[in-house]
Structures are given as structure tokens and as C-alpha cells.
Amino acid sequence: MISLNQVTKEFPGKIAVNELTFEVERGEFCVIIGPSGCGKSTTLRMINRLIPVSAGSITLDGVDIYNYRPEELRRQIGYAIQSVGLFPHMTVARNIGIVPQLMNWDMSKIRRRTDELLDLLNLDPGVYRDQYPRQLSGGEAQRVGVARALAADPAILLMDEPFGAIDPITRESLQTEFARIQKELKKTIVFVTHDIDEAIRIATRILVLKDGKLVQHDTPENIMTAPAGRFVTEFIGTDRALKRLSRLPAVNYMKEAPNVRESDPLQSAAGLIAEHRYLWVLAHDGKVLGWLDENSLKSGEQTAGLAMTSLDFRMSAVVTDSTLKEALSRMVQQGIRSAPVVDMKGVLLGEIRMGDILEA
Ligand SMILES: Nc1ncnc2c1ncn2[C@@H]1O[C@H](COP(=O)(O)OP(=O)(O)OP(=O)(O)O)[C@@H](O)[C@H]1O
Ligand SMILES: [Mg+2]
Fold it and tell me: Is there a contact between 2 and 60 (Cβ–Cβ < 8 Å)?
């Protein structure tokens, strides 16, 4: 629905955005990330026409943004900025109601909408409606900034480091809240940050910029697992992501693990393999011995135990108090997409899947 085509922005002596082409689909949560000065804010400001493009074109639903009347564009696009930019002489409620007022909504409708948004952002309307910006904490002010961007129910939200000024703990809870709000409201969001953890937590797609150019545009999962070159790799900072995983107990992410016994006929495993792509093979006492996949079915062996690829649970499995980081490092070492979770004797309890780790 938002489409940039060869967009360039040249300031005197500086190309801030350089032939940038990308699309954001309806309902997508697109996060633009990159080092300071790479052109993130400039890109957002061109989308809502705060600054003109030097070359190239931007369309919304196929229509060039310069073909919309400015007020039409403003109704469709909400904008939240890092510095919040609340008007100090107006109450919270009046700040939130600015765009609806410009659009001539009646007062009772604006009031209902304002209270609804305060509720949505976990600010008690009775407490906050009539406060002034100077009475708010940084985190509260940023919530009000987000509420204001949402006020006229725009289909598109542009957010320029909206959580930038908030301490890490409040910030994480706001991110989680916001991801929830996004699921509920199904907005199309373009969100700027230079915090890779934030990007991975909330984005459906991430766009990495460097010197005004697009370096990679992909899902968080692919950015993590297949970064396009050294710049992205270094920007992600693998140890930072791993640091986070090392705070998460693997057992919280454990799923039921499909399995058969080693004496089971190989053919009886075919259905489960088709469903799960692989199966764990257990001894009579429940100990993990190995796994089966599609290739094992072609082995011509009679039983699961004969056809399986063996594994040593001490090398490949995790125990209940392992962290997700440990689970991931087992998978990487052993080249497997999921790790069995076992008790101290090697008895299968469940499994941890790569996809769940990346989501975490
Ligand atoms: N009005 C302007 N006049 C001249 N140069 C500008 C102007 N606005 C931005 N620039 C330059 O364009 C480049 C991109 O700026 P931009 O604000 O888009 O960066 P950014 O990626 O948002 O950075 P940050 O993470 O620091 O906010 C920078 O080098 C900046 O100095
Ligand atoms: Mg910026």
C-alpha cells in the first residue's frame, strides 16, 4: 500500500536518501533501522510530505502522494516523533484531539475517542485527561504522543523512535503493548529505531539502511539468520541477541515432541513424518536415541530403530533448566532445527524449535 520508487533526497551538499525502493503492505509492521544519519527520519518525513522528494515517487494505494490534498493525507497518516512534540499549553485530551478537531469532529465524539485511546495505552482517563504535558513522565508523554498519532484512526502510522526517550524496562513493556495494539487495530506501520532488539521484537519486516541506501529488507527471522553482508551482521551484533536468549528458560518454550519407539515398524512413522518433517526415536524406557525424516523412509529398513540417524543426547539435547541460548547453540553445533528436551537420564520430555527461539 505504501510504495517508494527510486526515492532520493538531496540536501545541499548531502544525499540523505539515495534511490530508495521498497513497499510496505497493508497491515505490515515495517521497522526501518540503521545508524545515526543514514536517512531514517528523512524517509518518514517524505512519506507524509513534511519534506519534498528530490527525485523518484511515493504512492499510497497506487496514488502519488502529491495527488492527495494535504488534509486527506493527514487523515490517512498518523505521525509520532521521538521528541513527542506535545503542545505544553494544552491538556493531554486537547493534544490527543488535535487532528479530529481539524477534521471538525463534534466535541462529544472527540471526548469519547480521547478516553478510548487513553484506555488503550493504559493511562486512566480520569487521571490523565486534564493533565498538562509537564506533569507527565517521559514514558507517559510518549504514550500520549502515540495516542495522538492514532486519534483520527489513520490507516497508516509513521513512528520515529517513539519509545526513544524511555528507560529500558518501561520501553520493553511499551513495545509489547504496542505489538498487541497493532494486532488489534491492524494498522500499517513504518517505525524507525536504531535499537535492533526493538526491531526484532515488534517488526514483521525490517529494512536496514546505510548511507541512505537499502542494504536489506526482510523478515526479522531472515535478518537474524541470513544477514546480507558484514554491515548487517555487525549491526545485529550476534552476542547482543544471544545475551537476550540467555535470559530465557528453554522450558518455557518447550513443545510436545513427535516420537516413535525404536521397535515400531518404519512404515508406521510415515504419517507423522509427513506432518512434522521429523520424529524422535525413543528406546523402551523413553530415552532419546535418534531421529527420522523423509530420507530415513527411503532406507528400506524395517524398524524405526534401524532407519534412524543416531544422536547422543549429551551432545544434542537440553535439560529443563537450560536457557534458549544453550538450546540454540546445540542446534547450531549439531545442525538440527529442533533440540530434544530430556531429563537427567535422557528421557524425552519435549522439544525446543528453532522458529520459537527466533520468535522469542
Ligand atoms: N534539513 C536538513 N538539511 C541538511 N541536511 C540534513 C537535513 N535533514 C537531515 N540532513 C542530513 O541528512 C542525513 C540523514 O538525516 P536523518 O535525519 O534522516 O538521519 P536518521 O537516520 O534519522 O538519523 P538519527 O538516527 O540520528 O535520527 C544526515 O546526514 C543529516 O545530517
Ligand atoms: Mg532520525
Answer: yes
pLDDT at 239: 64
Spatial contact of 311 and 290, defined as CB atoms under 8 Å apart = yes
Count of structural domains within the chain = 2
For ligand 1, residues with CB inside 6 Å are 11, 14, 16, 34, 36-42, 194
* Residue type (1 letter), 307: A
Place of cell 530430556: 342
Ligand number with the minimum distance to the CA of 45: 1
Co-location of 124 and 36 in the same domain: yes
Assessment of whether the complete model's pTM goes beyond 0.70: no
C-alpha cell at position 165: 526517550
Q: Out of 4, 7, 11, give the residue to mutate to test ligand 1, the one with the largest number of ligand atoms within 8 Å of its CB.
A: 11
160 and 293, same structural domain?
Answer: no
Nearest protein Cα to ligand 1, atom 18: 39
For atom 12 of ligand 1, which residue has the closest CA?
16
Does residue 245 sit within a domain?
Answer: no
Buried-exposed string 257-296: b where 16+ CB fall within 10 A, e elsewhere: bbbbbbebebeebeeebeebebbbbbbeeebbbbbbeeeb
Please report whether residue 33 resides in a domain: yes
For the chain, which residues score pLDDT lower than 50?
none
pLDDT at 225: 79
Domain that holds residue 60: 2-236
What CATH number is associated with residue 139? 3.40.50.300
